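Customer ticket, subject: "Can you confirm the structure for Membrane-bound lytic murein transglycosylase F?"

Message body: Hello, I'm evaluating your service for our small team and ran a test protein. I'd like someone to confirm that this is what the system normally returns, since I don't have a reference to compare against.
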Amino acid sequence: MRKILLFFLITMSLLACKNTQTGQKEKSVYDLPQIKDSGELVVLTLYSSTSYFIYRGQEMGYQYELSEQFARSLGLKLRVEVAKNIPELVHKLKKGEGDMIAYNLPVTKKMKDSLTYCGLEVITHQVVVQQNKSKSELLTDVTQLIGKDVYVKPGKYYDRLVNLDKELGGGIKIHKVESDSVSVEDLITQVAEGKIQYTVCDDDLAKLNATYYPNINIKLSVSFDQRASWAVRQECTQLAKAANEWYKNNITSPDYTASTKRYFELLKTTVHSPILSLKHGKISLYDNFFKKYSKEIDWDWRLLASLAYNESNFDPKAVSWAGAKGLMQLMPVTARAMGLSSGEEENPELSVKAAVKYIASINKSFSMIADKKERRNFILAAYNAGLGHIYDAMALADKYGKNKLVWYNNVEHFILLKSNEEYFTDPVCKNGYFRGRETFNFVRDINSRYQVYKKKIKH
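Agent reply: Thanks for trying us out. I re-ran your input and got the following:
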């Protein structure tokens, strides 16, 4: 009996060992062939204005677009998983929760020992953000920072300035902005608006923000170059090879170039024109469409005209940096959902008709707001940002003791805060990072312009 029991235990032990080895082997060979069998490439990234975010209900971001192009080249669908920070990115990759990190991951010796860098490779450095001024006032050398007030967030920007200050023998007036309600991009905005003179950030973030604020100068570097790249697990040699080949062959491709221009070159602002004819009571060439379709949503046609003014400056052929098209700047997915075929966005009447249909659908989503005038503010905000981010801002308002059914000085405050990590990573937020300043200004600008129209143009 003992011999039989001993034989049974040895047999089970050998089987367990074999299964463990087999499991390890299966895990270790999860490379490109297995990824192709699954039908999807799972990339890990972080929420930010330069990597990944949701805009008007669509996934966007520079890193997202490039990784989508890479996945498409392999015949795969792309799925994005978002981590909270770089250490979590690496942890998730090692655990097999994603196939690749699609983010500007700093290239370090420590990381090289556990990961394989591949695919997209960039050289980054930190720059001073300042307003464009006369040659005599513009800082062109780091020594000119002595005696200047520079506002920076804690972490690498603050650390670099402290080290630079030591290198220069002291004299830089460094202000550490520790408030979680102020982000790096908020500081850039403050420079653009003249509220502070200088801040420091990475050059890619500076380039993106220069497309929103053409009056900033970002040419002065304050750090050494830092290599950054995508990464995969060390055993994923075939995936790494495919990523390297894709990057080498596509860095000058039309799609790659278009994505780079979209985020880092195309201006995000629209130059606006005055009222078409004050004498004849005309706001634009398309007033008859605004008058015709505004009745369907019980809006003053001048409010609808104000929305179109903000969106396209009444240009039916306008195409935004994000791909929104036409007089009412509908995103492709939204246009299709509202019944427009590709190309019909340029038809001004069809654009207005579809926009009104979209507004009607948004209106239903805010039925909990009884006051129609108040509800319009939420509709305008959602038209600009997408429903998800407005719901997030409402949830934050509710959590922090504000009225989630009132826009001004309540929910609008939290749409601003959605660009700050403390808030967009809050458990009540389901849609991540969002550059809320545009939506904040959008609602205010449209309502302000509407008041002007009401005073100058007869109903």
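A couple of notes from the result: Residues 1-27 have pLDDT under 50 and may be disordered. The first strand starts at residue 40 and ends at 46. Feel free to reply with more questions.
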